[in-house]
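Chain A, query sequence.
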Amino acid sequence: MGFPAGIVIAGAILMSAAAVLCSFPSTLVLERAFPADHRVPLSQLRARDRVRHGRMLQSSNGVADFPVEGTFDPFRVGLYYTKLQLGSPPRDYYVQIDTGSDVLWVSCGSCNGCPETSGLPIQLNSFDPGSSSTSQFISCTDRRCSLGVQSSDSDCSTQNNQCSYTFQYGDGSGTSGYYVSDLLHLQTILEGSMTQNSSASIVFGCSTLQTGDLTKSDRAVDGIFGFGQQGMSVISQLASQGVAPNVFSHCLRGDANGGGILVIGEIVEPNIVYSPLVPSQPHYNLNLQSISVNGQALPIDPTVFATSSNRGTIVDSGTTLAYLAAEAYDPFINAITTTVSQSVRPVVSNGNQCYLITSSMNDIFPQVALNFAGGASLVLRPQDYLIQQSSVGGSARWCIGLQKIQGSGITILGDLVLKDRIFVYDLGGQRIGWANYDCSLSVNVSATSRTGRSEYVNAGQLSDSTSLRSSRYQLIPLLLILYMLGNFLFL
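Chain A, predicted structure.
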């Protein structure tokens, strides 16, 4: 979800904010799921806790995890979000997880256009600086404001000396407000204790105006948690204070339950492959070199994927689907259709390529490989590039979920292809890694200590969160979905 207004993603189903200009060792505790009847023996709970607490980090950095809710499925939620605690006394705020933007912002009191209710199973809150004893306004002379000015994440008003921001999104929505500093509350796993309550002072946005899709309540959250690498991002602020490692990871569940893992620290998995980040870019740009279908490279000029001001490949958890550069889209569609033409009936619906099938899609559709610099390939299974639609005459209809941005050379890897995988954003090493993974399972996490050693959290300490799940997701009314998806989802 984080791209300048000059890049238009018309009709894309991103949260309400499709593209903004726009971690660390702590835990908002993740708990693994138990049966609905709650009939779990105490002995089992104690055994689980022993595993969870059996090995603590021998590092002042610690490891932090955040509860994750939401799904990639646009018919249910179409975004992933987490819960934060801000201010004194601390209050809960639900914010979308967005690796395509930098700034954490939440709705503030007297906001014009901010939703008051949500179709998600959450209670919306607005931040009131006057009600927090530790809140401070950020002035234009504050060095932290100047960091945002350098990355276009902040601006200054000469009238009131207030550090402010205005973000315009590619879908026509936007938000503006001012910056404050206040405490972000964490529970950090430290040596010698189970968890330790801690806090860090961070700068974040206080939204006083929202427009466009941000005003809609169907999937409203309190704000956006930008995980970008610029100076105003929370992970950069915490790393610069020495309270967090300069790496974060996520594993987003792609099943109907959704949720997943978000941790500030490095998830350790032997099958992770890494590709270097393109240097000096505002977003998480990777060097995509080619696309293969069933092992055969597609006839696409490699310069199509070269990074420039209007080209490149960006990893963005704030985007629901995925998008191919215009010059790569048709070769990709043609290769898929040619491969499956003997087994399915291709149909076009609203300009989107779909297929009617009567057997399992995994038996019919090929694997697709996105091949990156460093020899790392992101291998897509059929469910990573297809979306199921309604049946037609007993046949299931599957449509290509990778979309084309007409006239754009940007490739965006959104939740459709990020789900069911570990993704590690190693900002210190300037690389991103990934591996297929069952995100309902626990993970090993490493944090670098001051001695330079890596310490590990046992598998079982960090696992898929259900702590936000107070009820099943409310289905978005069909007509509203069709209006929001426009030409990008399929009737």
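The first strand starts at residue 64 and ends at 71. The mean pLDDT is 79.
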